């Protein structure tokens, strides 16, 4: 069980109304790695993360988390499992009316029956870890964008999760703050020995922190491989420049997820 991937998608399909967003997506995220999913706006990156924590259910295919098939798990089955995850939402998503302290304490109170003193100590340590010691009493409105993102990170790591999901952690930050968040993700990776899944279109962040990188396009991975290998790949250059992707013949096979016949992908199709 311990060498099971942290997250695995097999032929995952998801449509909203008549719009197919994920079209037979396969991916395997190894335990302990930092895996970054790149993709244009609307390509399905956030949808992908939401499938990992059961906020969305796939129409077909399978999702495995820490070796367990979760795509058909009822909501109550997720209650314990979500404790293994920390999620930094796109745009921080703090509770505006709650102090920094209460924001970070929120998941602890939700999942644990800890003494107030123990909660305080954990919150203090998490805030210290993101460079925000002493900000407990402030409200989100009193923080800069970069500080809000870091409070979001502190909240995500409050329960020492095994998997941390980051949705656009640097969007809207100036270069210095973006770099700081990148360093924080890397430092937490070492400290928590967690698996990190990062969704971004920030290539600087991507190559500063990732072990492996995937490019999501047309509902599947157009490219996946070790950061050092994909960096100079034609697919990635096309993404970086916003130009047309290279024709299939120009793509080296090793780094490309094999195309699978539609029939093979359509597992569980009878589930509607
Ligand atoms: N709950 C939903 N209901 C209907 N459509 C949705 C829902 N969630 C996502 N979509 C659609 O799925 C597509 C992918 O959305 P997603 O949020 O995953 O994009 P993204 O890659 O994260 O983009 P961005 O970089 O802009 O955040 C979009 O067309 C979006 O409108
Ligand atoms: Mg998104």
Task: Write up what this structure looks like.
The protein has 272 residues and is of the alpha/beta class. It has one domain: P-loop containing nucleotide triphosphate hydrolases (Rossmann fold), CATH 3.40.50. Helices cover 35% and strands 23% of the residues. Strands 6-7-8-3-9-10 form a six-stranded mixed beta sheet, sandwiched between helices. β7, α6 and β8 form a beta-alpha-beta unit. α3 crosses α4 and α3 runs parallel beside α5. The longest helix is centred in the last third of the chain and has 18 residues. The C terminus is likely disordered. The structure holds adenosine-5'-triphosphate and magnesium ion. Magnesium ion (MG) binds next to α1. The site of adenosine-5'-triphosphate has 12 residues, from β2 and α1.
Helicity, as a percent range: 25-40%
Give the name of the CATH superfamily.
P-loop containing nucleotide triphosphate hydrolases
**Largest sheet strand order:** 6-7-8-3-9-10
Using only C-alpha atoms, the radius of gyration works out to 19 Å
Write down how many β-strands occur, each being a DSSP E stretch of 2 or more residues: 10
CATH architectural group: 3-Layer(aba) Sandwich
What structural class is derived from the secondary structure elements? alpha/beta
């Amino acid at each position: 069980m311990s060498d099971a991937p942290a997250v695995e998608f097999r032929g995952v399909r998801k449509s909203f109304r008549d719009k197919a967003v994920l079209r037979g997506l396969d991916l395997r995220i190894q335990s302990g790695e930092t895996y970054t999913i790149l993709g244009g706006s609307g390509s399905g990156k956030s949808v992908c993360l939401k499938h990992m924590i059961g906020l969305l259910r796939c129409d077909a295919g399978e999702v495995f988390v820490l070796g367990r098939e979760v795509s058909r798990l009822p909501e109550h089955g997720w209650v314990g499992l979500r404790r293994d995850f920390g999620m930094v939402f796109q745009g921080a998503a703090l509770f505006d009316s709650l102090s920094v302290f209460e924001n970070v304490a929120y998941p602890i109170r939700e999942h644990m029956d800890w003494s107030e003193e123990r909660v305080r100590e954990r919150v203090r340590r998490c805030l210290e870890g993101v460079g925000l010691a002493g900000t407990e009493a402030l409200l989100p409105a009193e923080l800069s964008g970069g500080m809000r993102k870091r409070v979001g990170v502190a909240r995500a790591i409050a329960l020492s999760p095994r998997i941390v999901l980051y949705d656009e952690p640097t969007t809207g930050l100036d270069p210095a703050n973006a770099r700081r968040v990148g360093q924080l993700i890397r430092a937490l990776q070492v400290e928590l020995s967690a698996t990190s899944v990062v969704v971004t279109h920030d290539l600087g962040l991507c190559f500063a922190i990732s072990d492996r990188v995937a490019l999501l396009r047309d509902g599947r991975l157009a490219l996946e491989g070790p950061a050092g290998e994909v960096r100079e790949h034609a697919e990635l250059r096309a993404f970086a420049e916003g130009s047309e992707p290279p024709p299939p013949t120009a793509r080296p096979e090793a780094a490309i997820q094999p195309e699978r016949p539609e029939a093979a992908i359509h597992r569980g199709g009878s589930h509607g």
